[in-house]
Design goal:
This protein is α/β, with parallel strands linked by helices. It has two domains: 3-136, Four Helix Bundle (Hemerythrin (Met), subunit A); 140-271, Rossmann fold, CATH 3.40.50. Helices cover 56% and strands 10% of the residues. Helix 9 (208-219) links the parallel strand 5 and strand 6 (229-232). Helix 3 crosses helix 5, helix 4 runs antiparallel to helix 5 and helix 5 (89-106) packs across helix 6 (114-136).
Amino acid sequence: MDFNECIKKRIAKEVKEDKELIASLIKTSQNKFDSEKKLELSEVTSSSKISLLYDSLRELLEALAIKNGYKIYNHECYTYFLKEILNESIKGDEFDELRKIRNSINYYAKDISVEEAKDVLKRIIKLRKGILNLLLKMKRAFIVHRWDGTPKNDWYPWLKRELEKKGFKVEVPAMPNTSEPKINDWVNHLKKVVGKLDNETYFIGHSIGCQTIMRFLEKETYNNKLGNVVFVAGWFKLDNLESEEAKATANPWINTPIDFNKIKQKISKLTL
């Protein structure tokens, strides 16, 4: 099975982000986490402690899935969600192993010793911490402006405000020498601003900003998927340029090829 099959079987579906539900799930997860700590570990309580802590982990996974636009009804599908949607294969494999241990306890009445329980509880706590970090990590959006533009031009301030309302950290970098943009200068500046890429990194490009993003991604060695990328009024050819200076500025952008396959490998969804 994979995540697409989870969708087809309707044991996972796309939903809108629900911040109130996410907050509620984080709270109930913490309550179970705190409750588990109050139980002294023994042969009698080992199974209960594992079940409580697993449920605490599972509720964080539910919140993380909703944050990323999915409602998941089957525990196994969380494995594929982690591995295929978030590109967190190690976490996905670990959750799958813990899921099987919990199922053997809950559904097949498997006895578990205190020593075994200690190991399982440590693993759940470690994975839960990793999931919580993913959940609380803020999405970052970078808006790259047009030729001869500034961060205060056009629709950039409006979009920045709207994205911030949705919980994004938004940057609209002032690109260098905007009247005569040069590929290396713009790509290097964007690289400096963005820093480390991850699956919570989003890009919006306008006009020459679209090419800047593509040329930046083409050179990056990041091998996983980013968040979504949106291009507005991008171009690879310009007609009716008004001056020889404008033509000289545009020519490198028009004539320097881009390896689109390298870019496609990094993008989860592209909107033009």
